[in-house]
Amino acid sequence: xxxxxxxxxxxxxxxxxxxxxxxxxxxxxxxxxxxxxxxxxxxxxxxxxxxxxxxxxxxxxxxxxxxxxxxxxxxxxxxxxxxxxxxxxxxxxxxxxxxxxxxxxxxxxxxxxxxxxxxxxxxxxxxxxxxxxxxxxxxxxxxxxxxxxxxxxxxxxxxxxxxxxxxxxxxxxxxxxxxxxxxxxxxxxxxxxxxxxxxxxxxxxxxxxxxxxxxxxxxxxxxxxxxxxxxxxxxxxxxxxxxxxxxxxxxxxxxxxxxxxxxxxxxxxxxxxxxxxxxxxxxxxxxxxxxxxxxxxxxxxxxxxxxxxxxxxxxxxxxxxxxxxxxxxxxxxxxxxxxxxxxxxxxxxxxxxxxxxxxxxxxxxxxxxxxxxxxxxxxxxxxxxxxxxxxxxxxxxxxxxxxx
Length: 404
Fold this sequence. Notes:
This protein is α/β, with parallel strands linked by helices and 404 residues long. It has 4 domains: 131 residues, NusA, N-terminal domain (N Utilization Substance Protein A, Chain:P, domain 4); 62 residues, CATH 2.40.50.140; 64 residues, K homology (KH) domain (GMP Synthetase, Chain A, domain 3, 2-Layer Sandwich), CATH 3.30.300.20; 126 residues, GMP Synthetase, Chain A, domain 3 (2-Layer Sandwich), CATH 3.30.300.20. Helix content is 33%, strand content 25%. The chain has 13 helices and 15 strands. A 5-stranded mixed barrel has the order 5-6-7-9-8. It starts with a helix and ends in a 41-residue tail after the last helix.
């Protein structure tokens, strides 16, 4: 019987990752509770389980009294005569351990002890699962779509279920039961019913983590993702930087024939991804962020975090993007409030003309203006088949595309 107990504990430790020592302690506690329920108290009772054999013993430490008539509490006291039957060296006033047979426990006490063990196993299992997923917080994991709960989706992550709430779902995405998807773990909470895991498909970090797992240069630190801006389900802009001058950061993320970026686009259900080069110079960074539009000039104010951009007349709608998306994402990516005007509009707009900065040019202090032709257009992840060619024309001359 005891051998079977040890084997059962070994199995629990292996399958549920619950420490065997924790289970032994739970058994000892359950024996003490059984004693308390059977005898009314167990203050002087100790339970011990042999970790090797599984044998268990329950002892009551009793005070030895001289006369049997002086025994007022049979749980805490024993007569000298009875004590010497167990130990011939026993003396009045001393202490002696008296073993309690578990078969003396009543049925109710045994059932309570059993429930204590089961409750401890459930608690430890919940703690193990919580710790397991708590370590994965802010990471991407693969789950299986299990069921739909109203507008929410239950995602099975193996040993636990996660909740993909409506607010964290991409409206254009539709899943089928048993479909495998990747999700970003937002938060893991420990509750009485077990860990509550909240996941997301809209968080920008989802895209970042997908690139970290797909691009070895990002994983080893050669290429860094400096900034990322995302409109879930539609488009993401990402600025990357290489710590190795021999490694092209954009090319590393795109991969041979676009294999790396394509796998991520597929996982995101066709969401377009623009990858541009990061630059510490805000003028160059803004120019890259507005790619694929061509830029005539950028006037950036690093103190105010604002930038005025001039583009050719025929490039205005391209720079703004469909419904302002290209400029909006560029503003989020760079952290600058960007105002874009065409060359025609810029002629009569303060702050968009070179003469507005004449003093800075003369003193050599202004270093954030770049004219068209002074740079090589940065590589763009969506060249060719990835570029969305259709852009809406600007409906008004007011083209302030700063992020709200």
